[in-house]
Amino acid sequence: MHLAGQPEIEIEGGTATGTWAFQDTVIATKYQMVVHGAAFYRDRYLRGPDAPGGSPTPDYRRTYEATLSPRRPAQLPPDVEPLADAATQPTTG
């Protein structure tokens, strides 16, 4: 699932730039895990009848990601890195 909304659009002459916030959720049943995250992407638009709808490669900035799984870290696939457990991290003060 991918939800995007409330873009900030800046118009300058025949071009515009849109910044979109979105959240996504991936349910990977094969790996018994859920990935939830958020990001911003920035797209550029051109005005005119022959102009494409948006940039072929929008700028994408991932800001948050959490991987949830009932499996222990040793049981995760080798290409998946578990998030650090905040309770076991040293604190600075």
What would a concise description of this structure say?
By secondary structure, this protein is an all-beta fold. The chain has no helices and 4 strands.
Give the total of beta strands.
Answer: 4
- State the helix count: 0
Q: Could you tell me the strand content as a percent range?
A: over 45%
Number of domains: 1
What does this protein look like?
This protein is mainly beta and 93 residues long. It has a single domain, classed as Nuclear Transport Factor 2, Chain: A (Roll), CATH 3.10.450.50. It is 0% helix and 53% strand. The chain is built from no helices and four strands. It has strands at residues 2-12, 15-28, 33-46, 59-68. Strands 1-2-3-4 form a four-stranded antiparallel beta sheet, with no helix packed on it.
Features:
4-stranded antiparallel beta sheet, Nuclear Transport Factor 2, Chain: A, mainly beta, disordered C terminus
Topology:
Elements: E1 2-12, E2 15-28, E3 33-46, E4 59-68
Antiparallel strand pairs: 1-2, 2-3, 3-4
